[in-house]
Specification:
Helix content is 23%, strand content 20%. By secondary structure, it is of the alpha+beta class.
């Protein structure tokens, strides 16, 4: 049986970052075979059936697309083994070679560790491995890997003080077009090198690892311009100062998670290239909250405030279509579909699943689907398709706290709504003060597309919908 890459959305040439099986391994149905990493998510390719791995067709660093061959599986082996008795615990003379049946790896649900484990474990599993070229770190690494975050580093500068380059704003389009292999691209990401500005010495101008180090050396000696390339719009960002924090007291150093590494450059780009403005509004949700609590007593699906927010936002976006658009050069692309992204907090970092066709779904259906997407996000099981196609995003901190904040627009969208924790406040009714449950809303918008008057009208209309849910039916 040939195992191929399933539907992974619009992504192509996605790198393989882990191979979790080897020939001869006996695996269960749905057991992960390889791990892929796009620019937005990490995903596993599961086995479609139980059996024995006959051949692995990819290796770490290979790029695959939908339909690419991953492995060949001898599914008949499952039938011949079905009547066998359960495997006894291995004795020292019989090491457990590679039994992965029914034992899904757990490395993917934990945050990244600051150091890599040994290449292979006793049970035959392959630990995560990445072809790294980091000669600058040899002088500060310890002979014994740390197993926990942090650790005593009072006499050692932080590991990321050693690399010669500060984090850079990279021209992503030029980076993608550069003639370089996966290993070189990864090395360039780690060193903050824009491959679009590096010269290649390989065949047909291919950029090699030595070319990346040569570029770094030229920057350090002043022969080339700093690696922090100007962002779109001509904004040049100076690198932060390098400080040996250990001189002033004990410190802990923690690596960024994979999601933080992927999302960080995009957040920085969005913040410095989009002219953000944030409007705040308070919505009276006293009656809506009472209705929500009563609804939860009547049916099994737990309805959260997010479901009502999504439904109200769709109505507001339909009334003010510029908020459901994207800016492309001197044209505005107004979308006639309404897909709402929502920020989900996970142990690995912030991800944004997308609820598709929100305008065609009721509150109960929205509540059920967002709960399923949030669960997949926490388990690290979101597919690329689960995070594509959003036209507007909601970031809700209601379960944590806060009053107002400035959410960062999720380009290429032009607006994002932030919701904080609702609080009881005295509100003047015209004759006296009455306690009302008020929800703080924060709308960030792109001033190139939206003006202040339009944002104020959007917020006022949205608050009115939340104050009287019957208006959502109009």
């Amino acid at each position: 049986m040939d195992v191929k890459v399933p539907d992974i959305g619009d992504f192509k040439d996605v790198p393989v970052i882990e191979v979790l099986v080897k020939p001869g391994d006996q695996i269960a149905a749905e057991a992960p075979l390889v791990t892929l990493e796009s620019d937005k998510a990490t995903m596993e390719v599961p086995s479609p059936a139980a059996g024995v791995v006959r051949e692995v067709a990819v290796k770490v660093g290979d790029k695959v697309s939908e339909g690419s061959l991953i492995a060949r599986l001898d599914a008949k082996e499952r039938e011949s083994r079905s009547g066998a008795k359960p495997q006894e615990p291995a004795t020292p003379e019989q090491p457990v070679a590679a039994s992965r049946a029914g034992t899904p790896p757990v490395e993917h649900v934990e945050p990244e560790k600051p150091f890599r484990e040994a290449p292979a474990k006793a049970d035959g599993r392959q630990a995560p491995s990445v072809d790294r070229a980091e000669p600058q770190k040899s002088s500060v690494e310890q002979p014994t890997p740390r197993k926990e975050y942090g650790g005593p580093t009072a006499t050692i500068p932080p590991p990321w003080d050693e690399p010669p380059l500060a984090p850079a704003v990279i021209d992503e389009e030029a980076f993608q077009k550069a003639h370089a292999g996966p290993g070189v691209r990864k090395l360039a990401r780690e060193l903050g090198v824009d491959l679009g500005r590096a010269s290649g010495s390989g065949p047909k101008g291919r950029i090699l690892a030595g070319d990346v180090y040569k570029f770094v050396k030229s920057v350090m000696t002043g022969a080339a311009a700093p690696a922090a390339a100007p962002a779109p719009g001509g904004l040049a960002v100076a690198p932060p100062p390098k400080v040996d924090f250990a001189k002033f007291g004990p410190i802990d150093t923690k690596p960024l998670t994979r999601i933080q590494k992927i999302a960080g450059p995009g957040l920085h780009r969005n913040w410095v290239t989009i002219p953000h403005v944030t409007n705040h509004e308070d919505a009276d949700i006293t009656d809506l909250e009472a209705f929500r609590l009563a609804l939860n007593k009547e049916q099994e699906v737990k309805v959260t405030l997010l479901a009502f927010l999504m439904k109200a936002c769709v109505a507001a976006l339909q009334k003010f279509p510029n908020f459901n658009s994207s800016l492309e050069g001197d044209h505005l692309v107004v979308k006639k579909y309404w897909n709402i992204g929502f920020a989900a907090d996970t142990p690995q970092g912030l991800v944004v699943p997308v609820l598709k066709d929100a305008d065609k779904k009721g509150v109960l259906a929205i509540a059920k689907e967002t709960a399923e997407l949030a669960a997949k996000a926490r388990d690290g099981k979101l597919s690329p398709g689960d995070m594509q196609g959003s036209t507007f995003t909601i970031s809700s901190l209601g379960g944590i706290g806060g009053t107002y904040f400035t959410p960062i627009i999720n380009a290429p969208e032009v607006a994002i709504l932030g919701a904080s924790r609702a609080q009881m406040r005295p509100v003047w009714s015209g004759s006296d003060f009455k306690p009302r449950l008020m929800l703080p809303l924060s709308l960030s918008w792109d001033h190139r597309v939206v003006d202040g008057a339009g944002a104020a009208r959007f917020n006022t209309f949205l608050a009115g919908l939340l104050g009287d849910a019957r208006r959502m039916l109009l």
